[in-house]
């Protein structure tokens, strides 16, 4: 389920809701399957470019952080 969550935006409607502006403005203007939308948002959140600073709302950053935390827990469990 977690792998699907990371790869398919449709499984996480909260992320789509919270990041709709960012998806429209910075991720091709529409939703993409195969993890492209989520990866775009994660890259935007990690960006250190001056032009990217503060382009994400606090709600979107929180939703992306939640996805990243799920992914981190999944990868940590693989090590055990």
Quickly describe the structure.
This protein is mostly helical. 65% of the residues lie in helices and 0% in strands.
Q: Can you offer a commentary on this structure?
A:
This protein has 80 residues and is mostly helical. The chain has one domain (2-79). Helices cover 65% and strands 0% of the residues. It is built from five helices and no strands. It has helices at 2-7, 13-18, 20-26, 36-46, 58-79. Helix 4 crosses helix 5 (58-79). The protein is globular, with a radius of gyration of 13 Å. The protein starts with a helix and ends with a helix. 20% of the residues are buried. The model is unreliable at 76-80 (pLDDT under 50).
Secondary structure layout:
Layout: H1 2-7, H2 13-18, H3 20-26, H4 36-46, H5 58-79
Helix pairs in contact: 4-5
**What is the CA-atom radius of gyration, in angstroms?**
13 Å
- The number of strands is 0
Strand content: under 5%
Number of domains: 1
Question: What gross morphology would you assign?
Answer: globular
- The sequence of SSEs as H and E is HHHHH
Mind describing the biggest β-sheet?
Answer: none
- The average pLDDT value, as a whole number, equals 76
Q: Which structural class is indicated by helix and strand composition?
A: mainly alpha
Distance between the termini: 19 Å
Question: What is the helix content?
Answer: 55-70%
Low-confidence stretches: 76-80
Number of helices: 5
